[in-house]
Specification:
Blueprint (H helix, E strand, L loop, with lengths): L10 H6 L13 E5 L10 H9 L4 H9 L5 H9 L6 H7 L10 H10 L3 E9 H10 L6 E8 L6 E5 L5 E2 L3 H11 L3 E6 L5 H6 L2 E4 L1 H9 L5 E2 L3 H12 L3
Parallel strand pairs: 1-2, 1-6, 2-3, 6-7, 7-8
Antiparallel strand pairs: 3-4, 4-5
Helix pairs in contact: 3-4, 6-11
């Protein structure tokens, strides 16, 4: 039976131990928290928008974020304050440029059909996550992302945590904690460096791209994937739902 590796905040434990959901385990208390940009999609929609409309050197701000010198909240706030385009023009800028990772629709149907709660938690912006999901016929998927307000002086971007309080950082981690507090076992699916901390706090991890490299470097147990059909096969074999 294929194993689904369990993550742990203790790297030594994660390196030496692999766990799997017990045979015939109920799926009602399993939640899949999934990243969006670079995970559900192959491209980062926000970067395409910033390249098209930011009236300034937003990539320098991003470099500060990637180096860990500023928070994700400050990055998005400063970068999108340079954007004065409206919602319609921003959405038009990503038409034909953002592609869905193969198998996502099947993955969403699998979760729905097997009682797995699927929740997208993204550092991206709510309006384009909503539009992209609507465009692929999945408008009802639960998602949480930064809230975008359009102003003449530039966009205002804020993060609101699961308790309703404003956040500047650790948005994804806050949701993992909240879901654990609600009694869920959390399966995490992600691709980027910002996914490492929430993955470390989750029970099971599917990783691709940069997240996979970081997990391996940190000896954090994970299952690699290229497309969502890989995730479906692994979950299905592990949970023995068929």
């Amino acid at each position: 039976m294929t194993e689904l590796m369990r993550s742990s905040s203790d790297a030594a434990v994660a390196k030496s131990q692999a766990s799997q959901v017990p045979p015939n385990a109920p799926s009602a208390n399993i939640l899949v928290q999934c990243d969006f940009d670079g995970t559900v999609t192959l491209e980062d929609a926000s970067f395409i928008m910033l390249d098209a409309f930011a009236a300034g050197e937003w990539r320098k701000i991003n470099a500060e974020y990637e180096a860990g010198r500023i928070t994700v909240g400050r990055f998005n706030s400063e970068a999108f304050s340079l954007v004065k385009a409206n919602r319609q023009d921003l959405l038009k800028s990503i038409e034909g440029k953002v592609h869905i990772r193969p198998g996502f629709e099947d993955f969403a149907a699998y979760c729905r059909g097997n009682g797995l709660r699927l929740v997208i938690v993204s550092n991206g912006l709510d309006f384009y996550v909503e539009e992209i999901l609507k465009g692929i016929g999945l408008p009802d998927i639960e998602f949480h992302a930064s809230r975008a307000e359009f102003r003449d002086t530039g966009m205002n971007v804020t993060y609101v945590g699961p308790d309703g309080s404003a956040l500047d950082d650790s948005f994804k981690e806050a949701y993992v904690k909240r879901f654990h507090d609600l009694g869920y076992r959390v399966v995490y699916v992600g691709n980027g460096s910002s996914d490492f901390k929430p993955a470390r706090e989750s029970d099971y991890v599917f990783a691709t791209g940069t997240l996979l490299k970081v997990c391996r470097k940190a000896s954090l147990g994970c299952s690699p994937f290229d497309d969502f059909r890989d995730v479906v096969r692994e979950l299905d074999a592990t949970l023995r739902l068929t």
